[in-house]
Automatic annotation (TrEMBL):
Ranges where the Molybdopterin cofactor biosynthesis C (MoaC) domain occurs: 1-38
Name of the protein described by the UniProt record: Molybdopterin cofactor biosynthesis C (MoaC) domain-containing protein
Pathway: Cofactor biosynthesis; molybdopterin biosynthesis
Pfam families according to UniProt: MoaC
Lineage, opening ranks: Bacteria, Bacillati, Actinomycetota, Actinomycetes, Mycobacteriales
Swiss-Prot/TrEMBL keywords: Molybdenum cofactor biosynthesis
InterPro entries to which the protein is assigned, alphabetical: MoaC_sf (IPR036522), Mopterin_CF_biosynth-C_dom (IPR002820)
Keyword Oxidoreductase tagged: no
Single biological process term from Gene Ontology: Mo-molybdopterin cofactor biosynthetic process
SUPFAM superfamilies reported in the protein's UniProt record: Molybdenum cofactor biosynthesis protein C, MoaC (SSF55040)
Amino acid sequence: MEALTAVSVAALTLYDMIKAVDPAARIDDIRVLRKEGGRSGSWAR
């Protein structure tokens, strides 16, 4: 969950810098593809 939050914040930061240059810029499909460790063990989409 922490990694997903970090990626979302990074994407929003990049979007904020790019939107002045490219108004059509957008963020799509932020999702977890694979997870290892933790309580539920390994997981893959």
